[in-house]
C-alpha cells in the first residue's frame, strides 16, 4: 500500500477509498517545505495523543474536511466541544470502521492538549484493512506491551516506529521491537524535527541493514509503496 509522509509523525494512507491522516503537525515544522496544509484531504484523522507536535493542524484540517477524529475518549470529547465529530477509544479497544478495523494499543508516553487540558493516556493503533495490517506506535518507549500485538492481531505488514530518542524510543531499540512485533519492515518517524531528536540517517539505515531490518526513512512529501 502507498503511504505519504508529511514530516515528524504525520502520515497519510488511503484505505478502502478513504483517506486517513495521522498526527498532523505541518505548519509548525520548519523542515516542511512546499506542502500546503489546506490541500491535504482527510476522511479520518487519527491522533495518538494530545501534544502540539501531533495535533497542531488537526482543527484547521477538520474545519475544511469535516473528517472524523479517532483518538482517546478525552481527546475526542475535547474536539466535540469545538463542534467536530469523533470516535473515542481507549487502550485495548477495537472498532470496525468503513476503511478497516482499528485496535487501540498501549503507548508509554505522556499527553496534554495545547490548552493544558488532560490528554488521556497516549495510544498506538493497529489498523487491519484489505490493503494491509500495520502498527502506528505513536510516541512511545520500547515496551513489553508490543509483544501482545502479534498475539492479538493479524500479522503485521509493517510498523511505524519513533526512532529519534529523547522523548521516545530510539533507533537502537528497533531490533527488539522487531522481535516483539514479529515484523521486520519498519517505517521511522519522530526524528530530525528538533535538535534533540536529530539522527544521522545514513548511520541509522546502515544499523538497520546490519540487523536485517527492512527500514524506510521517507523524505517529507514522499509517497512510497510499502
UniProtKB/TrEMBL annotation:
<protein>
    <submittedName>
        <fullName>Metal-dependent hydrolase</fullName>
    </submittedName>
</protein>
<dbReference type="InterPro" id="IPR050114">
    <property type="entry name" value="UPF0173_UPF0282_UlaG_hydrolase"/>
</dbReference>
<dbReference type="InterPro" id="IPR036866">
    <property type="entry name" value="RibonucZ/Hydroxyglut_hydro"/>
</dbReference>
<dbReference type="Pfam" id="PF13483">
    <property type="entry name" value="Lactamase_B_3"/>
</dbReference>
<feature type="domain" description="Metallo-beta-lactamase">
    <location>
        <begin position="7"/>
        <end position="190"/>
    </location>
</feature>
<dbReference type="GO" id="GO:0016787">
    <property type="term" value="F:hydrolase activity"/>
</dbReference>
<dbReference type="InterPro" id="IPR001279">
    <property type="entry name" value="Metallo-B-lactamas"/>
</dbReference>
<keyword id="KW-0378">Hydrolase</keyword>
Amino acid at each position: 500500500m502507498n503511504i505519504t509522509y508529511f514530516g515528524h509523525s504525520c502520515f497519510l494512507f488511503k484505505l478502502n477509498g478513504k483517506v486517513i491522516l495521522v498526527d498532523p503537525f505541518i505548519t509548525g515544522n520548519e523542515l516542511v517545505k512546499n506542502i500546503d496544509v489546506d490541500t491535504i484531504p482527510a476522511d479520518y484523522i487519527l491522533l495518538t495523543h494530545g501534544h502540539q507536535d501531533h495535533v497542531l493542524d488537526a482543527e484547521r484540517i477538520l474545519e475544511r474536511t469535516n473528517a472524523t477524529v479517532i483518538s482517546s475518549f478525552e481527546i475526542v470529547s475535547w474536539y466535540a466541544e469545538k463542534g467536530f465529530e469523533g470516535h473515542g477509544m481507549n487502550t485495548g479497544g477495537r472498532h470496525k470502521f468503513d476503511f478497516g478495523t482499528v485496535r487501540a494499543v498501549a503507548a508509554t508516553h505522556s499527553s496534554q492538549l495545547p490548552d493544558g487540558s488532560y490528554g488521556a493516556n497516549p495510544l498506538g493503533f493497529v489498523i487491519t484493512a484489505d490493503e494491509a495490517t500495520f502498527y502506528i506506535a505513536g510516541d512511545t518507549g520500547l515496551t513489553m506491551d508490543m509483544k501482545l500485538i502479534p498475539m492479538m492481531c493479524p500479522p503485521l505488514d509493517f510498523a511505524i516506529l519513533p526512532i529519534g530518542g529523547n522523548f521516545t524510543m530510539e533507533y537502537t531499540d528497533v531490533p527488539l521491537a522487531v522481535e516483539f512485533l514479529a515484523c521486520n519492515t519498519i517505517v521511522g518517524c519522530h526524528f530530525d524535527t528538533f535538535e534533540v531528536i536529530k539522527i544521522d540517517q545514513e548511520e541509522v539505515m546502515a544499523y538497520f541493514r546490519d540487523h536485517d531490518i527492512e527500514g524506510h526513512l521517507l523524505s517529507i512529501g514522499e509517497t512510497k509503496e510499502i
